[in-house]
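Budget justification, computational time. The allocation requested in the original proposal was used primarily to generate structure tokens for proteins on the priority list. As evidence of use, we reproduce two of the resulting records. The first is shown immediately below.
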Amino acid sequence: MAVPASTRRAQILERIRRDGGVTIAELARAHDISNMTAHRDLERLARDGLVERVRGGARAMPDSPPLPSHPTAWAHRIGQATEAKAAIAAHAATMIAGGETIFLDASSTALALANRLMADPPYELTLVTNSPMIAAELHADPIHVVVCPGELDQHTRTITGRWTVEFIGRLNFDTAFVSAAGITLDAGLTTARSSIADVVVAARAAARTTVGLVDATKFGRASLVAIARAQELDEIVADAALSGEVVEQFRGAGVRLTTV
């Protein structure tokens, strides 16, 4: 299954920095994409000042910073459970209609949903997000993108803080799509950072409906900060890898859980 464009470009940038350069034809073969898509990826990286375009490809900038020895939390998350996240995103996209206003949090599953919406954008959709990665991906004319103000955490690629929470508190969403680092019946949805929990709680309060996007690997895990009880969400969408026993436990506890 195709990876998100942002992930592919990160992989391309890593290759260029490692090898010194690459051709469009090499990228097309390595990533199973068209020459035009490879061209657009290189143009995007060049506009961001990350590579230098040359005829037929691109090369590393003379002063390119060294690749980090430890991947960021975002880089780690974006490569996990990609097929599961794509399946969840495909189902979540069917819950969105033209003319609505939705919130997407800064999770990698929400990014998968954003990429799905790019493929078939609802007409006059307003999309609010605290994810700079999602904002950078969305360039379809029918989607009006609103980016939350706040403080950018480079490690998690999230915008959070008091400004973010106050801004969200002045808005109204038809649906908020949120995720978590873990979910159990006892602890509910949890995350490792209170700043992330604060944003999700604010989005829930501003939304008529809240949908959790949680892949199977996160079930049975509890992190530091509670976001919400599982029963408090209007629906939780998980992938089909979730065991039937866990599904029955959650449904028996009053959780509206859908597997796709």
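The second record produced under the same allocation is shown here.
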Amino acid sequence: MEYKRVFCFGCSFTNYEWPTWVDILRKDLDIQVQNWGLQGLGNVGILSKMIQCDIINKFTNEDLVIVLWSSWTREDRYIEGKWTSHGNIFAQPDDSPYDNDFIKKHWDWSNDIIKNSTAIISANKMFNIFGNFSITPMNSLDDIKIGDGETQKEINENKLTEFYLEDFPNIKLFNKPKSKIYDLAWENHPDIIAHSNFVKDEIYSKLGIVMKPTTEKDIQSYQDALLDELIKKTDSTDRTKKIEYLIMQDIAKSLWESNNWKKIDEHDWWRNLKNWEDLAKKSFWSKKSKDMTKIIKKSRREDP
């Protein structure tokens, strides 16, 4: 294969509780594979992490850059050393800063159209992306629009969407067939088999390579182990009662090492620093060393 490194970007379809397509690439390829995906992240955050990755790694034509774009109703803000990424803004956890008051004051579909379109178009103008994929359809107005265009606001929003779509790359939907996991737990992410099929059908087929038999074996081993553990947790008296998400999450996390997988945290800009004190050595902070010392200490306390 002509590529020397692989850089992957996305949300929970890229970095999740069980191994994803990125973990499969890392296991199967004999080159460096970095996972910059983060659960709940939107497309503005994805673009931001792509730029951070490029600043650190200096993309070349020998790098394989793959992005799995996220859904559009997400809010990405970097606050106190971490992304506040909670997915769909209309389905937020109780501790989210994006509450109903925030939505009433700050959310508008036109703004989502502009910021998501700008992120996707900008990324493709800046970087030589091998593959653009998405967790939701986004190649036509019918894929993206909200409403039927019956009000003037909706008509304007549709025109705005069409304006940006003229400069969109071809973005292929991630295929997510029904999984046995869905019958057992409150879960709708693609399982490891779907991720394996994605690698083979959308990446390896274009690279002209095949997956190692040992990788195929480890993929099936993890899937079987997860299903076995979930079945043990099901209520034998009520098969219609699904396992809670947090329980499923803990089970999925516990099976990595025992099935020949290694869980690696997502890459971020600060992971390349030896420690937080190194931030003070950055030239653009040197003139504000006293203030930065306070910020660094605060970051170390609150963002381990």
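A brief technical remark on that second record: The two ends are 38 Å apart (CA to CA).
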